[in-house]
Design the sequence.
């Protein structure tokens, strides 16, 4: 196999880069160790930043977010719910910081409007009555799953390829160039080799590990952030705590649910990365001081992602574009066809892809300009199933008694799952419960897979995708994966739900045996 | 009689899961004036209808017991705090025997070998070890044992059971199976109560003969026919034998995902028999408070629309279940008993409630949390002595057991119910 550009990592950056290059007519392959959005892109607050959050400590990021979020609202509206956002302070928060905030926003050209206490409470009745200040900003909610899936889909439509479950395990160099990239296909344990002209390392927090395969190093500090998913949505808009960035500052809407984030805990390596009970407690307590109902809310799961923080002073080998993200050309380290792009935000993913593609194209001598600033993101019907609350809306509008629901919590119909299976198969991608879950809402509702996991397995048997007891193996894996997120939120009604799940899966089915 | 029991009962049973139902049954059979109070049907609508006694011990070794009594003997020896050890082997045997007689009286026939556990195949295609099996599932037990040729059917639109999955998954243990999808003779209604709807449709003779007509063309060489558990909410034996007569081979039920028709059936049949025996069943109401004089419980206050109602009794059995049933509630910091705030045996901190892997064979410590009791199944107060002379506990609320992993759910519910009633009688003498 060969390609002009091999992109490592199918998070939102790799996906965006694939689309950018494909739109410039460059041939590329995206390879991903697990599946789309397996890293930070599948474990974040889904907040499309207006920039206001960064005005005090990171003006470059603030301006990038301001410009990119506006652009995305016009180019990728299908992935965005334009909720607006509030910055709120409660009794006890730093008054100096509060009074400084609107001035800083104005200084960086970020629209902000002060709200009276009563206005804010009318807008968001869930806010605490200890509220002392509220400012309205242009924050929004973005669905990172749909975003990555659509970027990949459009890249593929323009000739790019995606290989999932294909992990880069080595580079073969000849002089200053990487000649081939070695991959292990984790499902089959087969190894493949791809001949490359350019390689982009878009592996986010894994960037250091990947360059080490080529004998280089990037000093990265790993910061884990944990988030909680509520059973029901608690606010209409994004709520930020008006204080220097800290734990439990953000309550952002994700369709029918809210996401409460985040923490910041140092890790020695980018994986494994799991939410812990103490982080969950911290989040609940902190966020409840802004939105009191969160103290007694039912949480359906927790999850964690890793931010790669660059130890800046040591990054000497490339252009530091901003404190938000870096694009490194690795030329000083003796490699002429590797680029690393890491850091940043979902909000700025398009810009990260553009800067990276500019560098890659200049190396390839490709003159075609970046088109992602003007071409709207193509929207495919199939990717809509990632949207929380969409399936129930469709169902309620047009209940179809003939069509069984595969997932009752999220009301995902069988036909949606069939579409997804067909697509996975057509692309030769790995077909398992997690792959279906990623592309839909199956397993993400309050039962967390207890019922729909079983039904999906049954359905795969019916489609002849499984034989003998393969389904049991898949079901066990699926349940164990959901468990990481479930375990930290097991109290109250979610513990009762878990009890039912265990009675069923262990008491009756004996899956532990 | 009902009115007098309501004025002053011998025994008030709180909870109508299997433990509460069994307690009321034993109490009524002993001639006690009994009132049973419950908010919900507990786990009954989910339960498979199988009666496990003891399948696995020690669970971390996943050690299966063919002979449940030998298993219980070992368990009593190894785990002196397990509720079975409180009861002792003889009481457990007696309870089991009497309860099966009671079920027979209630019109539900169960099958099983007196000294041996049975194995059957669940809707997931896995093997399940249990002790007593509804008669309508029994041909499946024998069919598996003898590897008979069987047709397994499922139905278009039914989301709880897949014949292909069943046949494929169990294939290495039971190869002579064939899957067939059929159209149920009546259009399926709804999404979450499909099996219940189907069971109701089979109440009428036409329903059965229409189903038989749908199945027969696919029978071929099959010696029996397996299908999801939908053979009627009442008198399932009649439904099964009617189908057998028309198809020409025995049919058997396969336990399904909830809602479980056999669980509902068990509840219905027991309740009807309890009413015939003169028990007062108070449904859909929460017990709010138990009044005592410090030493003895005197009465139970019930939640009501306007006025509160207070029921008096000489003794009380708590069969309020765990988190799902409502007997226990967990906050982020601790687990509490919900009705009387009795001390709950539990892991020290939430970190220790669950293990890192869901399917860890050691089981989750939180599942062994619950009420600790004395030998008369009376819950202990903080000082280690029984909290009240006339308060008893039955069922999954008890500490030091993991019925899910040890496959002893019904056994625990039924035998501790028996133990609680016996203890009440002994204490009242
Ligand atoms: C807790 C948290 C909250 C956040 N909240 C927000 C927010 O609200 N708004 C916002 O704009 N941004 C947010 N971010 C930032 C944002 O999520 C990330 O910047 C963004 O997702 C990074 O995308 P990426 O594609 O660069 O990296 P990733 O998404 O991490 O993708 C890297 C991919 O590389 C793959 N990979 C790794 N090693 C290999 C290998 N050897 N071979 C092949 N593939 C490999 C991984 O499997 C992974 O899929 C948040 C981040 C965190 C951690
Ligand atoms: C999915 C599933 C599968 C099962 N499969 C099997 C199986 O294969 N074999 C087997 O042997 N058993 C099985 N079981 C059944 C199990 O054995 C019993 O359900 C379990 O032991 C719990 O019974 P319980 O009566 O103690 O509690 P529950 O069933 O939880 O009952 C508690 C009762 O207390 C009531 N209550 C609580 N608080 C109050 C209050 N304050 N006021 C009034 N009422 C109150 C509730 O409303 C309820 O009626 C299964 C159960 C489930 C959920």
Sequence:
């Amino acid at each position: 196999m060969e390609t002009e550009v091999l992109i490592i990592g199918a998070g939102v950056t790799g996906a965006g880069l694939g689309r950018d290059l494909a739109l410039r007519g460059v041939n590329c392959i995206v390879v991903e160790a697990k599946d789309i959005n397996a890293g930070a892109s599948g474990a974040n607050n889904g907040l499309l930043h207006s920039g206001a959050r960064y005005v005090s400590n990171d003006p470059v990021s603030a301006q990038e977010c301001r410009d990119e979020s506006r652009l995305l609202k016009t180019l990728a509206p299908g992935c965005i719910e334009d909720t607006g956002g509030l910055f709120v302070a409660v009794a006890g928060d730093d008054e100096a910081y509060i009074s400084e905030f609107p001035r800083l926003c104005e200084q960086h050209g970020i629209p902000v409007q002060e709200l009276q206490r009563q206005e804010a409470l009318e807008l968001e009745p869930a806010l605490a009555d200890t509220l002392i200040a509220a400012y309205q900003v242009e924050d929004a909610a973005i669905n990172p799953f749909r975003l990555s899936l659509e970027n990949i889909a459009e890249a593929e439509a323009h000739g790019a390829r995606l290989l999932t479950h294909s992990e880069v395990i080595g580079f073969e160099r000849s002089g200053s160039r990487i000649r081939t990239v070695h991959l292990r296909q984790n499902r089959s344990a087969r190894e493949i080799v791809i001949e490359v002209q350019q390689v982009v390392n878009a592996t986010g927090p894994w960037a250091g590990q990947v360059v080490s395969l080529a004998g280089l190093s990037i000093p990265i500090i790993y910061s884990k952030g944990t988030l909680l998913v509520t059973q029901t949505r608690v606010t209409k808009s994004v709520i930020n705590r008006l204080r220097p960035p800290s734990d439990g500052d953000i309550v952002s809407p994700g369709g029918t649910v809210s996401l409460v984030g985040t923490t910041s805990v140092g890790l020695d390596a980018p994986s494994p990365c799991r939410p812990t009970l103490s982080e969950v407690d911290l989040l609940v307590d902190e966020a409840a001081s802004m939105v009191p109902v969160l103290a007694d809310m039912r949480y359906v799961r927790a999850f964690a992602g890793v931010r790669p923080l660059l130890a800046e002073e040591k990054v000497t080998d490339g252009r530091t574009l901003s404190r938000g993200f870096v694009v490194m050309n690795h030329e000083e380290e003796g490699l002429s066809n590797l680029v690393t792009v890491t850091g940043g935000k979902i909000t700025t993913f398009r810009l990260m892809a553009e800067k990276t593609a500019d560098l890659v194209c200049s190396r390839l001598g490709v003159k075609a300009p970046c088109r992602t600033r003007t071409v709207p993101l193509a929207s495919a019907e199939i990717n809509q199933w990632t949207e929380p609350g969409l399936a129930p809306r469709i169902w309620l509008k047009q209940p179809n008694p003939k069509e069984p629901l595969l997932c009752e919590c999220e009301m995902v119909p069988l036909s949606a799952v069939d579409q997804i299976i067909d697509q996975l198969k057509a692309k030769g991608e790995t077909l398992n419960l997690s792959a279906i879950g990623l592309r839909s809402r199956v397993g993400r509702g309050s039962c967390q897979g207890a019922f729909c996991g079983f039904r999906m397995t049954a359905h795969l048997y019916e489609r002849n995708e499984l034989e003998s007891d393969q389904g049991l193996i898949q079901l066990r894996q699926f349940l164990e994966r959901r468990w990481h997120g479930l375990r930290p939120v097991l109290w109250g009604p979610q513990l009762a739900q878990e009890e039912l799940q265990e009675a069923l899966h262990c008491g009756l089915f004996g899956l532990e045996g | 009689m009902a009115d007098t029991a309501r004025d002053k009962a011998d025994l008030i049973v709180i909870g109508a899961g299997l433990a509460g139902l069994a307690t009321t049954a034993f109490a009524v059979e002993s001639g006690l004036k009994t009132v049973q109070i419950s908010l919900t049907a507990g786990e009954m609508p989910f339960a498979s209808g199988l009666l496990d006694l003891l399948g696995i011990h020690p669970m971390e070794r996943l050690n299966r017991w063919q002979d449940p009594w030998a298993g219980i003997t070992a368990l009593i020896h190894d785990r002196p705090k397990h509720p079975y050890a409180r009861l002792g082997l003889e009481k457990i045997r007696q309870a089991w025997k009497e309860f099966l007689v009671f079920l027979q009286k209630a019109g539900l026939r169960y099958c099983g070998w007196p000294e041996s556990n049975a194995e059957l195949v669940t809707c997931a295609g896995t093997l399940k070890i249990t002790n007593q099996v509804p008669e309508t599932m029994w041909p499946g037990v024998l069919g598996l044992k003898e590897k008979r040729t069987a047709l397994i059917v499922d139905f278009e639109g039914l989301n709880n059971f897949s014949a292909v999955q069943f046949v494929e998954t169990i294939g290495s243990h039971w190869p002579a199976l064939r899957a067939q999808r059929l159209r149920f003779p009546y259009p399926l209604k709804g999404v979450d109560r499909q099996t219940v709807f189907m069971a109701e449709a089979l109440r009428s003779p036409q329903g059965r003969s229409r189903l038989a007509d749908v199945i027969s063309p696919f029978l071929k060489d099959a010696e029996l026919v397996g299908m999801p558990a939908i053979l009627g909410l009442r008198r399932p034996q009649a439904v099964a034998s009617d189908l057998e007569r028309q198809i020409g081979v025995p049919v058997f039920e396969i336990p399904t995902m909830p809602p479980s028709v056999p669980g509902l059936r068990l509840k219905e049949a027991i309740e009807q028999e309890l009413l015939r025996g003169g028990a007062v069943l108070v449904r859909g109401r929460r017990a709010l408070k138990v009044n005592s004089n410090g030493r003895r419980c005197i009465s139970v206050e019930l939640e009501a629309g306007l006025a509160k109602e207070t029921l008096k009794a000489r003794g009380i059995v708590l069969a309020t279940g765990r988190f799902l049933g409502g007997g226990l509630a967990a906050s982020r910091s601790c687990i509490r008993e919900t009705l009387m705030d009795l001390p709950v045996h539990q892991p020290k901190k939430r970190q220790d409630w669950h293990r890192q892997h869901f399917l860890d064979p050691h089981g989750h410590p939180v599942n062994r949390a619950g009420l600790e009791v004395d030998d008369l199944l009376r819950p202990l107060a903080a000082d280690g002595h029984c909290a009240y002379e006339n308060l008893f506990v039955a069922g999954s609320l008890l500490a030091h057991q993991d019925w899910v992993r040890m496959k002893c759910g019904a056994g625990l519910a039924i035998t501790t119910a028996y133990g609680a009633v016996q203890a009440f009688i002994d204490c009242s003498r």
